[in-house]
Design brief:
The strands form 4 sheets. A 7-stranded antiparallel beta sheet has the order 15-12-14-13-17-18-16, with helices on both faces. Strands 5-6-10-8-9 form a 5-stranded antiparallel beta sheet. It has a 4-stranded mixed beta sheet with strand order 1-2-4-3. The protein is globular and about 75 Å long. 32% of the residues lie in helices and 21% in strands. It is of the alpha+beta class. Helix 1 packs antiparallel against helix 3.
Length: 463
């Protein structure tokens, strides 16, 4: 019996034959939902149903030195779930139960494989909400969200995933289970160990279960598209909206002119909120549950800003279906990707006041790069996060590196980051020195070495 066959036999004994995929069943899978045409390469895929199974599998992998890559919803953007063919893939898809919804504590106790959209639907039934959301909510799993500290469309008001995690259960590289599944909002009993694993992209441990904080459900939301003349006016508009609305302003998305026109293509010509041609567009949302905000306040404010010349045009969604249509324009990134030949995706952050200058600079650089076909710029402007999707005429390592440097190198001067919410994975690892010091990188390596001394957890990612 070969070493590989022996490994498969042993793992099958741990999880059961029904929870082990080999051969063609592996190659029918993939590493990303946008790359379904590329077959997964792995020794096998394990689909555990309990933390005990994950722990036992990791004990075996630690003993044998078998590397492990964890798969969730496969919506990451930086290669965190990529494999080379010599790893065991652990997919959390069968650990997908919502174990408890505690209305009094406003918490959800969930397994790592729970789909974000399913969680949102279930907590809504009991008058609560889990506010972290983004376009991939129908695929993304809670464990992956925590492992990547996912952001999304409401970070400005509600923060990143990190702010909504109260407790974690994590399986370490040697199979040890670290259980801190508490419902406590306040707990200063030593080091906050869960923070080590939030945003660690699976290089320090495998998240199996979590206690999430919930929020009272919104009494209602109101959405609008607004057109503006320049970035200076966007800043004026944002400051004024914040002063007037405070916590009621829950989203503020900025879209550049050409990107807005391309995004609207998803509507196939029907129900476009505002005419094309304005320099900048803002998609904003307010909640009527905060501070007694009245439903018609948004219309009143926009009328005032139109009269004062702060905004050029505005359209307020008049129904829930129209709101969903407005948000579809922004959320359906797949539509932009479908217009690219060879695409590269960027997710950067920098001080809000510097966004306009930074974007002007990278647009000049991209326009001057002969290998670039087109590009799209948009993002969560109110929390300093800009996304850029670049379409290229051809694909080569040299062109990828040139485009990366065009986007990343200016960030150092602004005190920015090469990754606002997508993480590092393998794709951004070489560019970390643009935003992290040598001392910080050394500390990351020391933590990795201490918690995963054999280097078997998601090898090659981040550090």
């Amino acid at each position: 019996m070969t070493a590989t066959n022996l490994t498969l036999v042993r793992i099958a004994e741990i999880v059961g034959a029904d929870n082990l995929l080999v051969g063609d069943a592996v190659s029918e899978r993939f590493v990303h939902i946008w790359k379904t045409h590329i077959p997964l390469a792995a020794v096998a895929v394990v689909t555990p149903t309990s933390v005990e199974q994950v722990s036992a599998v990791m004990r075996y992998c630690h003993q044998t030195g078998l590397s492990v890559v964890v798969h969730g919803g496969l919506t990451n953007m930086v290669g965190s779930t990529e494999t080379s063919g010599i790893e065991l893939v652990i997919s959390m898809e069968k650990m997908n139960r919502i174990l408890e919804l505690d209305v009094n504590s406003k918490t959800a106790f969930v397994e790592a494989g729970v789909i974000l959209e399913h969680l949102q639907e279930e907590v809504k039934k009991v008058g609560l909400m889990f506010p972290v959301t983004f376009g991939a909510k129908g695929s993304a799993q809670v464990g992956g969200m925590i492992a990547t500290n996912a952001g999304g469309l409401r970070v400005f008001r509600y923060g990143m995933t990190r702010q909504w995690v109260l407790g974690l259960e994590v399986v370490m590289s040697d199979g040890t289970v670290i259980s801190g599944l508490k419902k406590l909002v306040k707990d200063n009993s030593g080091l906050d160990l869960k923070q080590l694993f939030i945003g660690s992209e699976g290089v320090l441990g495998i998240i199996t279960r979590a206690v999430l904080r919930l929020s009272p459900a919104s009494g209602g939301r109101h959405t609008a598209f607004v057109a503006l003349e320049d970035f200076g006016q966007v800043l004026v508009f944002l400051r004024s909206m914040e002063l007037t609305l405070g916590g009621a302003l829950t989203a503020f998305e900025l879209i550049w002119k050409d990107t807005y026109q391309r995004m609207c293509g998803v509507l196939k010509g029907g129900g476009i909120p505002l005419a094309f041609g304005y320099p900048l567009y803002v998609l904003l949302e307010i909640s009527t549950s905060t501070g007694g905000t009245s439903p018609n306040l948004l219309e009143q404010l926009l009328e005032k800003y139109l009269e004062e010349g702060i905004v050029l045009d505005a359209a307020v969604a008049s129904s829930e279906s129209e709101q969903n249509r407005f948000w579809r324009i922004r959320e359906d990134v797949d539509h932009l990707v479908s217009q690219c030949t060879f695409d590269q995706h960027f997710d950067v952050s920098l001080p809000i006041a510097d966004i306009g200058d930074y974007v002007d600079g990278i647009r000049r650089n991209l326009d001057a790069e002969p290998g670039v076909d087109t590009y799209f710029v948009y993002g969560h402007m109110a929390d300093g996060n800009i996304h850029v999707v670049v379409s290229k005429k051809y694909d080569s390592v040299d062109l990828i590196e040139r485009v990366n440097n065009l986007i990343y190198s200016p960030l150092t001067n602004y005190g920015g980051s090469i990754s606002a919410e997508h993480g590092i994975g393998t794709h951004k690892k070489a560019y970390l020195p643009y935003c992290r010091s040598k001392e910080e990188l050394d500390l990351m390596r020391r933590l990795k070495g201490a918690l995963d001394p054999k280097g078997i957890l998601n090898p090659g990612k981040i550090i």
